[in-house]
Amino acid sequence: MSGPIRHIVMWRLRGETPEERSAARVKVKTLFEGLKGRIDGLTHIEVGMDVSAVDYACDVVLFSEFTDQAALSSYANHPEHLRVREALGDLRIGRFQVDYPIKETGA
Q1: Residue 53, pLDDT score
Q2: How far apart are CA 33 and CA 47, in angstroms?
Q3: Which sign, positive or negative, has the C-alpha torsion 59, 87, 35, 100?
Q4: 1-58 confidence digits (pLDDT tens)
Q5: C-alpha dihedral sign at 15, 45, 81, 102
Q6: Which of 22, 40, 49, 53 has an alpha carbon 20 to 30 Å from 68's alpha carbon atom?
Q7: C-alpha angle 7/41/72, rounded to 5°?
Q8: Which H or E run contains 70?
Q9: Which domains does the chain have, with CATH numbers?
Q10: Global pTM?
Q11: How far is CA 43 from CA 12, 66, 67, 97, in A?
Q12: How far apart are CA 91 and CA 107, in angstroms?
């Protein structure tokens, strides 16, 4: 697969109280947004925190784009990404991911 690829990840996070869940959301957002400009091939990164409060919603979503599949594969083992994963520890209780090629659209 060649060309740009979109990488979307959603997490459910630990937290006994709404305050603990909120703090966990902020931690995930802060750590992943700190990767901006630090990883070759990562062209866009955005982190959103759920505001719906429905019981089936995930807590956080990561929306990122890479120049190609090789850049995404490299990101998985990049020291900065591994640092974030380690800092999050067992904060995540559920993880969902979708990767797909970005198709160019005509104007």
Answers
A1: 83
A2: 7
A3: negative
A4: 579 999 999 999 999 998 999 999 999 999 999 999 999 999 999 999 999 989 899 9
A5: positive
A6: 49
A7: 40
A8: helix 69-76
A9: 6-100 (3.30.70.100)
A10: 0.90
A11: 25, 5, 7, 18
A12: 43
Lay out the sheet containing 92-101: strands in order across: 42-49, 60-66, 5-13, 92-101
CA-based nearest residue to 48, from 19, 86, 9, 87: 9
Residue with tokens 């060309």: 3
CB 81 within 8 Å of CB 56: no
The two three-digit tokens of residue 73, written as one number = 């594969």
According to the model, what pLDDT value does residue 103 have?
86
Closest CA to 60 of 9, 5, 99: 9
Cα gap 46→36, rounded to integer Å: 9
Q: What is the pLDDT of residue 105?
A: 63
